[in-house]
Amino acid sequence: MNRLKALMVREYWENRGAFRTTPLVIGGIYVVVFLMGIFTFGYFDNEFHTLKEAIQFIAQKTNPGDRAFAIQMGLMFNSFLFTLVLAIVVFFYLLGSLYDDRKDRSILWWKSLPASDTLTLASKLLSAMFVVPVFFFVVYVLTMLALTIISSIVVLTLGENPWTLFLGLTNPFKPLGMLLASYLAMAFWALPLYGWLMFVSAVSPRIPLLFALVPPAVFAVLQIWIDFLRTFTLKTNLGGLIWNWFANSPLIISGGEHNGNVGAALGIPITDDFDHAVTIGNMLDRLFSVDMLMGLLLAAVFLAAALWLRHRATDN
């Protein structure tokens, strides 16, 4: 356990720019854009001449329940840029996780350390599953806290009470907790993709991005072009399966109306395989489904192949 922890700490220090600096930069962009919006509000084409008029209208004319709902949805929807960049960071981190030390010929030095290839692979996988999402989530919470403080100061200076206007209307821990739960649930749902990326990272001689994207794309196109390449177990081509897997994910990435409810949604509500309402139960339904079991088996195959290749890897 201590060795695994040390390896995960090593992963952090080797990738702290992606793990730590990237979400901090995004948070800084949020704050800067928010401040720019406040200072330039009067130049927007809207029915209010000043920000004070807009805040007074919200305080006097809008329903507190509607404001509470908007705050909850905002706390989840505002994370979209964080979620998008998180996915990109994890994608490229895993793609280079087993390739980079072969590229720079440092693999033999790492193999000389008192840590097995299994622990090395586990440290990289666990970092992608939990360390990176937690960093992004913590920075997102701090960013929302900074925006809340700025908003409260602005509201106070304009003569309104921030507590009655928005602070006291809802419990922020519920939407933020749902967001964190969706991140952690997605870490397990995405294991087939993570396994594939680590396999590609272990096997590709160069340019792992091409090896990760081109074979699945070519295979999907061939399935569409030549109908008999479809197997007896697949209802659609590989591209369709990947799209359904993404649409059914337990990650909060969309919104709109689904099953008579308006608000945030798990995945993209275009399928009926799972309920897309944002609840812990719906996240668990995905994690304890047949789809998840098949994904775990596929991930196990890819990870086992990546580990076998890691055992055989040299600096050549």
Describe the fold and architecture.
With 316 residues, the protein is mainly α. It folds into two domains: 2-172, no CATH class; 198-312, no CATH class. The chain is 71% helix and 4% strand. The chain contains 15 helices and two strands. Strands 1-2 form a two-stranded antiparallel sheet. Strand 1 and strand 2 (261-266) form a beta hairpin. Helix 2 runs parallel beside helix 8 and helix 10 runs parallel beside helix 14. The mean pLDDT is 83.
In a nutshell, what does this entry contain?
This protein is mainly α and 316 residues long. Helix content is 71%, strand content 4%.
Q: Structural class of the helices, strands and pairings?
A: mainly alpha
What profile does the largest beta sheet have?
2 strands, antiparallel
How many domains? Answer: 2
Taking Cα atoms only, what radius of gyration do you get, to the nearest Å?
A: 23 Å
Helices, by number, come to 15
- Give the end-to-end Cα distance, rounded to a whole number of Å: 31 Å
The strands making up the biggest β-sheet line up spatially as: 1-2
In terms of DSSP E residues, the strand content is under 5%
